[in-house]
């Protein structure tokens, strides 16, 4: 149940709950949830942890993923997802929103908002999606300083260092950076935009005993692999960062086209979440029960017919 139902509020810090989920057998599967409603639907499907993608956040705001948003804007999304679900949430921290002191501010802000984990990447601004070309990579020691700052600032947050270096520095460069970031205090490594099974396996082999995250985004450089296949390659976490937004956006585009074409949404009703389904997902009646002065809503049965 949602955050106003006190009996169901988690008591352990989010970072501890993220570590607990990660410690269970098998690979930790984290679908992207771009808002509170998507997060509730992912929880209802049985997921035990979630991911908040910077690309999905910015796209939902109508802007590109170029490092334009602020810590406070991200915290708005973190709070709604954490409050709605109580699930441990991994948050995309982009490049840390600045240098060491900015990273420390980000870590504390994300913790206060309810995040359980964050990943920070070694790109330079303006950063871009890890599966695009011509990424500008930061000096490895500058990135290590950010990881050290994050580790120093955190109270419980799980810290993942993402390296985008495979495309420009090869596997040797990506592995060397991963080892440096681990020495600086990272809890896990996220090697971005690996594009073959051999690359995934080689990276895991060359950093033995390290907790690794795999990214299964669509329309990128990585072929489709299942969670179990990533686990067999040596990975402990997998994200599907923008999948929920892609599906929602496609459905919305179809809806608007239908309204424009048909003069209304009457031909799209079968594709809609019903009022009853929406209220069940957001727990409307449980909220109403908190205040005896609120009369329980009666859901209309079907739709009225035109005379």
Write structural notes for this entry.
The protein has 307 residues and is α/β, with parallel strands linked by helices. It has one domain: TIM Barrel, CATH 3.20.20.60. It is 45% helix and 11% strand. The protein contains 12 helices and 8 strands. The strands form 2 sheets. A 5-stranded parallel sheet has the order 2-3-4-5-6. Helix 5 crosses helix 6 and helix 6 runs parallel beside helix 7. The longest helix has 20 residues. The mean pLDDT is 92.
Low-confidence stretches: none
Spatial order of strands in the largest sheet: 2-3-4-5-6
Number of helices: 12
Number of strands: 8
**Relative strand content:** 5-15%
**CATH-derived topology:** TIM Barrel
CATH superfamily: Phosphoenolpyruvate-binding domains
What pattern of helices and strands is seen along the backbone? Answer: HEHEHHEHEHEHEHEHEHHH
Share of helix among residues?
A: 40-55%
| Major sheet details | 5 strands, parallel
Mean pLDDT: 92
CATH class: Alpha Beta
Task: Estimate the global geometry from the Cα principal axes.
Answer: globular
